[in-house]
Amino acid sequence: MKAFTRGILASVLMLSGLASANAADRAIIVLDASGSMWGQIDGKPKLEIAREALRSVLTTIPADTELGLMAYGHREKGSCTDIELVVPPASGSASAIIVAADSMKFLGKTPLSAAVKQAAEDLKYTEDKATVILITDGLETCNADPCALGKELEQSGVDFTAHVVGFGLTAEEGRQVACLAENTGGKYIQATDAKGLEDALVQTVAAPAPAPEPAPAPEPAKPEFNFAPELTLAEGGAPLKDAGNAWEIYKANADGSKGERLTTEYNNYKGSLEAGDYIIRATLGEAAVEQPLKVEAGQAYKPLFVLNAGTLVVRPRPSEGADIVDGAAVVLDFPGGDHPATYYGQTKVVLPAGETRLKVTIGQGEANETIQLAAGQTVEKDIIVGVGHVVVNAIYAEGADKVDAGGLDVRVYKARKKIDGTRDQVTYGYGPDNKFDLPAGDYVLVARMDQSEAEQPFNVRVGEQGQVTAVLGAGVLAIDAPGAKEIRVFAAKKDIQGNRQGFGYAYDQKHQTTLPAGDYVVEVDRGDAGKKEASATVRAGERSELTIQ
Length: 549
Description:
Layout: H1 2-16, E1 26-32, E2 40-41, E3 44-45, H2 46-58, E4 66-72, E5 83-90, H3 94-103, H4 112-122, E6 129-136, H5 146-156, E7 159-166, H6 171-182, E8 188-190, H7 194-206, E9 230-232, E10 246-252, E11 258-266, E12 276-284, E13 287-295, E14 304-306, E15 309-317, E16 329-333, E17 341-344, E18 347-352, E19 354-362, E20 365-373, E21 378-384, E22 387-395, E23 409-414, E24 425-430, E25 434-439, E26 441-449, E27 452-460, E28 465-471, E29 474-480, E30 486-494, E31 500-506, E32 510-516, E33 518-525, E34 531-538, E35 543-547
Parallel strand pairs: 1-4, 1-6, 6-7, 7-8, 9-14, 15-21, 22-28, 29-35
Antiparallel strand pairs: 2-3, 4-5, 10-11, 10-12, 12-13, 15-18, 16-17, 16-19, 19-20, 22-25, 23-24, 23-26, 26-27, 29-32, 30-31, 30-33, 33-34
């Protein structure tokens, strides 16, 4: 953690050159105050690390340095305009910046491009020399292009420079913001490289300027690339080109294991590696292979990586000749995998050679198959899950309206009852026009709307589509009882004990519910004003309205 904090400090000092700047130079630090700064590194929030780094930086700069602080994302969540010049650039501003950073909230989005542009404008970059130092732990989230902004500021500015400190970014993320610095002649520094940044601080700020040394003798020209790996699926196979593969490059530990990951590159990668020991990992799809590499100065390397893998193409279909289902889940349990991988719809993936267990699900249907895949082989499979398609609805009565309400509850059960008289539930949904893919067989639809319920048996055949509609035999009762505190609905007929069956209630002056056709008693409780009853009749497929004064 201390090394990481020192890395941030060194980054800001080295990038801005504030400790050795002329008094006429003016700069603004742009601080990422987005909600992602609550993320932790080694158990400590990044915002706290940033605050500590700023306190350290501001105690080392000369008092006459004109420095300001701008922040974004510190006042509003979800806003792309939450940008504020918290401390205007001025000499002796260190204490004001420290207080502002320590009291700042970290809430919102990451409009880093707009913030850098506003900082440049506040520094009058088209008239005077200006420097902006951006410290960010995330990428642009407000539909702006940092690379294009860098070019625009460089072309319009008198002497404008933007430096970027990548605060906990991955190498790939860093490349997406590094262009902002590079396009203005600035530098991009990964804050995690604490030692390199600390050395730069000692050499450029803390230590007195060393006496000039004689220019070193020119080194022999180095080759443009000394590492150009190739990848094949099988021994003797043609090298893959632009296949979407990745190259992960790690430092090797003393015991030969993988150490720090240096970078991840893609496709037909060529690069230059410093002398040393490495572990190179090649991945494509779900297959991977790695091997050690010892790089010596002046040597070039073109290692071949053999994945020992093949290509599987799966086309999930509900029935023979039916279209491929994009929402079908394709689960692959392949050799060497820590856990099965899930894809959707038509799937084309590279897998390690050997036995792969395949499971495809469409709705409630499932198909399983075991596939043998040889290195370099392509296997294409149409997987027939064997389901039919039904659209489920309910109507109030024969010839009446469809129940078009989100409160409609539909459940599908197996038709066969168990020994205890219950059925196994297969699936469920809410509202009208529920669509289900079901294996062939007999089922029962149970539809419920408020207090009314109906069952409808149906059959599913593979490859067929059907409509299933349950008839509730119900109507709607709408009750208006001004001043009511509670409304209760009961069956009109009492049981042998003199009790009425309850059909729902509401703590309101109005109540609307769907009820089976029949006669009812509505009880209204107005508190101190007492209770009052009224009768109502509900007819199937009709709406009844009752007002109780």
